[in-house]
Design brief:
Elements lengths: L3 H14 L7 H10 L21 H10 L11 H14 L2 H13 L4 E4 L15 E5 L2 E8 L10 E7 L10 E7 L5 E6 L8 E12 L3 E2 L5 H17 L10 H10 L6 H28 L7 H24 L24 H7 L10 H12 L20
Parallel strand pairs: 1-4
Antiparallel strand pairs: 2-3, 3-7, 4-5, 5-8, 6-7
Helix pairs in contact: 1-3, 2-5, 4-5, 4-6, 6-9, 7-9, 8-9, 9-10, 9-11
């Protein structure tokens, strides 16, 4: 088995053969992937060495010390956190070899075509249709809240292929080419002034059957892999102590004693402890992931992430007083990534409002935690066995 010393040796060999000072970023990232040092727990030939997930930190530390470039994971988070693990679990060998390398190097950005105007929280009620035409599928419909669609080369897409079946059945999972002439991306301007989200219109989009992920009609099971990984990637990201939203508030508290009050102090202490508990819980969740696929526990982490971000950003605005109401830039932009900690308090407060919607609404996640983690009785659902075409709309 590959151990830490073996990974150090391989990393140093990579650095010797491709010195970061003289090697272009893309060339270095490709060489790193080919050496199995991209994500060491992936199989050999797919950017990994079949090693323990926990050993990735050994490689990352060696590369960071040498000043090696990374793949800018915040820019390609949907590909890394959602598309890649779904491809790994459900994709064919041909699909894995075609898509994983440019996904990891950042050559091809991915987006997620799941939510719809009439099927957001109730994702299984989606109405985008895919009709088979020989060796291709013709897709028509609308998706919404699509992060990075304006940058994406590929998308993970779920569409209804059999309306005569109940809503959780008759769904199929596809890999959609965002350059298809039938794909139209329109910006959705947010409360922050910018448009990181989009609505996507699909009109006669043709997807080859070779870009279907999983069996026909088995899309909901494949999508659950994506959703569980999405919630872990949002709520369980690795952070240092005082990383994330609590960091700017704690710095302001230390540097601006004139802003302090007893009430704000008590609230800050409470939120600091909760943020640290969430951080450590996320670390434990990542250790559990080393033993297999993510489970419903990720929903609990994403719930905590949303609540804490909203409460902490609200406290920061109060702490800063009038200056906390300011927002640095209301201009319409289509950013490549979301930067919570590099912007001002006003931006953080406004942007955090979306945390309880994106990646699964908090209300839906509460149901998941109640039923699948705590084992409580499921809510009555009268539409589970009704054909999708017969559902009231």
């Amino acid at each position: 088995m590959t151990d830490a010393e073996e990974l150090r040796r391989r990393t140093r060999e990579l650095l010797a053969a491709h010195p970061p000072v003289t090697t272009g970023t893309l060339d270095f990232l490709r060489a790193r992937f080919d050496a199995g040092l991209a994500w060491v727990h992936y199989p050999r030939g797919l950017g990994g060495l079949g090693a323990a997930r926990s050993l990735q930190t050994v490689v990352d530390a060696e590369l960071a010390a040498a000043g090696a470039p990374d793949n800018d994971p915040r820019r390609i988070g949907i590909g890394l956190g959602m598309a890649a693990p779904t491809l790994l679990r459900h994709g064919t060998e041909e699909q894995k070899r075609r898509f994983l390398r440019p996904l990891w190097t950042g050559e091809e950005v991915w987006c997620q075509l799941f939510s719809e105007p009439g099927a957001g929280s109730d994702l299984a009620a989606l109405g985008t249709r895919a009709v088979r035409d020989g060796d291709t599928w013709v897709v028509g419909g609308q998706k919404v809240w699509t992060s990075s669609a304006h940058l994406a080369r590929w998308a993970i897409l779920i569409a209804r292929t059999d309306p005569d079946l109940p809503k959780h059945q008759g769904i199929t999972y596809f890999l959609c080419d965002m350059t298809d002439p039938g794909v139209e991306v329109r910006p959705l301007r947010q409360i922050t002034g910018e448009a990181e989200f989009n609505e996507v219109f699909l009109t006669g989009v043709r997807i080859p059957d070779s870009h279907r992920l999983g069996d026909v009609g088995d899309g909901w099971r494949v999508a659950r892999t994506t959703l569980m990984n999405e919630r872990v990637s949002i709520g369980g990201m690795r952070l240092p102590r005082e990383g994330g939203m609590i960091g700017p508030v704690a710095r302001t508290w230390r540097e601006r004693p004139e802003l302090r009050t007893h009430d704000l102090h008590q609230r800050l202490l409470k939120l600091w402890v909760e943020a640290e508990v969430a951080r450590l819980t996320g670390e434990r969740l990542r250790q559990q992931l080393a033993a297999g696929q993510p489970g419903p526990e990720g929903s609990g982490m994403k719930l905590a992430f949303a609540r804490l971000n909203q409460e902490i950003s609200g406290l920061e605005v109060e702490l800063r007083g009038e200056e906390g109401l300011l927002h640095d830039d209301w201009s319409m932009r289509r950013p490549e990534l979301v930067d919570f900690t590099g912007r001002d308090a006003g931006y953080r407060y406004l942007r955090a409002k979306g945390n309880s919607i994106e990646g699964g609404t908090s209300e839906v996640l509460l149901n998941i935690v109640a039923e699948r983690v705590l084992g409580l009785p499921a809510e009555p659902r009268t539409d589970k066995d009704v054909a999708w075409k017969d559902l009231a709309r």
